[in-house]
Amino acid sequence: MDKIRALTVFRRVIELGSFKDAAEDLNLSKAAISKNINELEDYLQSALINRTTRKLHITENGQLYYNQVCNILDSLQHADLSIIESSHTLKGSLKISAPMSLSLVEINPIICEFMTEHPELSIELVMNDQFVDLIEQGIDIAIRGGGELSSSSLRSRKLTDLRRILCASPEYLARSGSINHPADLAKHNCLIYSFSSSARRWVLRNNERIEEIEIPQGSYVVNNGLALKQTASLGHGIMLTPELFIKDELESQTLIEILPEWKADNHSLYLVYPYHKEQSQKVRTFINFIVKHFEH
Predict the structure, then answer these.
(1) 3-state SS assignment for residue 146
(2) Alpha carbon separation from 70 to 7, 66, 79, 177 (Å, rounded)
(3) Which of helix, strand or coil describes residue 174?
(4) Res 130: pLDDT
(5) Do 163 and 265 form a contact (C-beta atoms < 8 A)?
(6) Does the keyword section mention Membrane (predicted)?
(7) Angle 87-93-95 (CA atoms, 0-180°, nearest 5)?
(8) Is residue 276 domain-shared with residue 242, that is, in the same domain?
(9) What is the domain extent for residue 76?
(10) Is residue 211 located within the same domain as residue 231?
């Protein structure tokens, strides 16, 4: 039995909850996965996983063993990295997850700069507006909006706050009438970003005054911020969006800010990564690089 391989197989089976998924992840056959788990259980003389036709269940001994196995494998990885990275030349691969619109507008150019400084590093950028499971998908670091972390195995660091504003095209405003108060929004066609945690509830503040607006069904709902911007620019309605996405449109007056005295809550961005990646020089270097960029 190859002990390191068996431990690696056991860990991925538990994390992915499937022999089949672990086989695909590790580029092994399903039979090889079963063989490694069986040999490990025979060696330990203890069941680690109970198999049923529908689901895997980790045993009490399996859970105890899994926790220790993770520590052992992470320590081995850190030991390897301490030597590999001692030359200060970043090598290998880095897998990053980020929202699609933010990636196209801001993150991808930063990654290109980072690759110029570290030409021996291979980067995979996964652009997805939905939350992804970092452990399951093998993500080294994710950029995502604020909120509670879904797992105690994750760590986070605040990156920046994005100011959000209300805006619409001059054509839409000329056709549909002026907006003098947040309550007027209920009479207008509001364009909805479906992945927002408050897609149909917009909260606006003017000093001590707070208005919470329930947005009625509009003519357009989309799960991408740039598509939302394009729709607003073509005169179809009002949107609430990060100012970062529409700087050029505001400058050219393709879009006009509405109710500038009323402020929406900022959209906070965080860097999120598995706790065992904290010691990775690649992850630390990228975090410092992107944080420095947003500080400017």
Answers:
(1) coil
(2) 9, 6, 14, 61
(3) helix
(4) 82
(5) no
(6) no
(7) 135
(8) no
(9) 3-84
(10) yes
User: Strand 263-264 to strand 201-206: parallel, antiparallel, or no bridges (unpaired)?
Assistant: antiparallel
* Tens of each residue's pLDDT in the chain, 296 residues: 899 999 999 999 998 888 988 998 898 999 999 999 999 999 999 999 988 777 888 999 999 999 999 988 888 877 776 666 555 678 889 999 999 999 999 999 999 999 999 999 999 999 988 888 888 888 999 998 865 565 667 888 999 999 999 999 999 999 998 899 999 998 899 999 988 878 888 999 998 899 998 988 788 999 999 999 999 999 999 999 999 999 999 999 999 999 999 999 898 899 999 887 877 888 999 999 999 998 86
Beta strands in the chain (DSSP E): 49-51, 56-58, 92-98, 121-127, 141-145, 154-162, 164-168, 192-193, 201-206, 209-214, 221-222, 239-242, 256-258, 263-264, 267-274
- Specify whether 183 is located in the same domain as 255: yes
State the Cα–Cα distance between residues 198 and 57, nearest whole angstrom. 36
Do residue 27 and residue 98 come from a single domain? no
pTM (global) more than 0.90: no
> Do 273 and 151 share a structural domain?
yes
Chosen domain end from 84, 115, 147: 84
Q: Which residue has the tokens 């604020």?
A: 146
Residue 268 backbone dihedrals phi, psi, to 5 degrees: -85, 135
Total structural domains within the chain = 3
**CATH number for the domain that contains residue 215:** 3.40.190.290
Q: What is the CATH number of the domain that holds 124?
A: 3.40.190.10
Same domain, 112 and 142: yes
Residue among 164, 186, 170 nearest 262 (CA): 164
For residue 95, what are its two tokens? Answer: 């897998």
| 176 and 217 together in one domain | yes
Q: How far apart are CA 102 and CA 167, in angstroms?
A: 18
What are 92's two structure tokens?
């290998």
**Distance between CA 8 and CA 69 in Å, rounded?**
8
- The SS3 assignment for 196 reads coil
Do both 177 and 259 map to the same domain?
yes
